[in-house]
Amino acid sequence: MTQQSSPLTPVNDVAFRSVIGHFASGVTIITTAEGEHLHGTTVSAFSSLSLDPPMVIACLNRSSSTHDALMRTGRFAASILSAQQGELAVRFARPLEDRFAGVTVDFGDADLPLLEGRLAGIECEITETHVGGTHTVFFGRVLTASVEPGEPLTYYRGQFGEFAGARERSALASARRWILQRAVPIGGEIDVELMASDLGISTTAVFNTLVSLSTAGLVARDEEDGTFRVAPLTAESVDELYRTRFAIEIGVVEEYLRNADSTDVDRLVERSRELAALPLDTADELESFLESNLDFHAAVVALSGSRELGERFRQCSVAAAWLPTLNDRLWQQQLGHELLTGYAEALGARDVAAARAVLQRQRDFVRNAARSAISVRGGLM
């Protein structure tokens, strides 16, 4: 007797982007040459396929001019980027007329272009292609392979960074969530080894994240014995966190929106509209919205090009603390959909004054809602 299963709800674009963004990957620039003309684009969907024979796969959007060049030449090179080549990754991801301007290129033994400063280089002959959705998967038989000393560039949750940095940010995000969801009650002592086991990270990483969270006021450290305890959220502490968070984003909008790259702004507008269309009927949908919303606003802050500012912005988020309160009518009715629509319009028009006004309204709403949620729970969360 077979069990009838209910039809699955299709995964929407925003949810999928959020989930797949948690898969950290290396970064490559795929290149080829047609005579004197060079083509190249940034690709994170690149992987080894086989050792015998040595083969790799690279996935390129079919709308890319580099995609078409690979189809014509039947060959490509992959420059695996080093930690210092984040600017190159951004450059080759944008629709510039000449991405190679000012870029030093070496030609490998197979006469394919490789970027100077790379961590590793591979030259390939395309053996077959397959179409999947908006992309083509190129199967490449490896002709040459070489490595250089250095550390890799990584791509994680929409941002480029160093491997160690991505690992530390992931650990910090997991620890923050663990603390805010009260795996240990307010005032309780945090067992570092138990926390490390729960999160699947090292005790050293746990200690480092607890030190960081203590500066944000989410944990308290006993100066005498060095132990950490869970600190309560109060109206005052949440006010300070949100004041800092919105000051960062408003400052970035005022300083960088007018001259931001059109591709980056268009992407932000699209993401804002997608967020505004998300349903908020279940706890899972509300939780997904909060995570995607944080990623979106962090992407706005990323217009500054400052990793430190982006990390400081994320440190001010206490969204996970509100999950037990998300059935409250205040959150369900006013979680920010209307404001997101207005924000999308302001960003698209590069209207700094309008964007600032929307952010100020959102700041006031979130702070008032947080105060209300804390108040009904006796002043502490």
UniProtKB/TrEMBL annotation:
SMART domains (UniProt xref): FCD (SM00895), Flavin_Reduct (SM00903)
Keyword Heme: no
Pfam family for this entry, one: Flavin_Reduct
Alphabetical UniProt keywords: DNA-binding, Oxidoreductase, Transcription, Transcription regulation
Ranges where the Flavin reductase like domain occurs: 20-162
Residue ranges occupied by any GntR C-terminal domain in the UniProt entry: 240-365
Protein name as catalogued: Flavin reductase
Organism: Leucobacter manosquensis
Upper lineage: Bacteria, Bacillati, Actinomycetota, Actinomycetes, Micrococcales
